[in-house]
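Suppose a colleague, Dr. K., hands you the sequence of a protein chain of 196 amino acids and asks what its three-dimensional shape might be. Before reaching for any lab equipment, you can write down a predicted structure in token form. Begin with the sequence itself:
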Amino acid sequence: NGTWFKSVYECLPFLALCCHYTQKQVDLDLNQNVGETRVAACGVIIFDDRKRILCGVEPPGKPRAGILALPCGKKDPGESDIETAVRETKEEARVKIDPEKIRLYKTFRFGRYDCRLFATINTDTTTWTSHDDNLLSLKFRTVEEIKAFGEDGIAEAIKQCFDGDKFDPKIFEMTGPVFFVNNTAPEQETMGGSSS
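The predicted structure, expressed as tokens, is then:
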């Protein structure tokens, strides 16, 4: 007789309102204290002297369980980009890094938000205690080992490290210190400046 349809129809404005507020909360959660840049997540590319990248598999229970990923995650309230990168690396890779020795690699768009990646060589790291967010099968991997996971088995942050069939050589360049003004990273020059 159509009464069930009328009940659903009367609920539509309420459902739309709930969806609107849920999306606003997601936006707030992802965009805390990041000024105009809308940086929502940060991570670190840790490489070794053989130019392999440290990555591991997201554990069960995580949204991206089974995906090969870098230590990378969402910003907490009040954190700077570097603080987020250092914390996520400690939590996910069991590695404590010196914030003075990590360098900006790139900022990339992921959905409606930006993710900022930093880089450091393994000699700048020390081991740390385990954490619930630890990546599994954590080890230094070559391009071939990473690509063996397949296109759908690799997190977007790792895909940003590729330049065709190899790692982007810019990852392994040592750059000058990172200075932020209003949470915006300027372009960096290679250490030693340009030759003249």
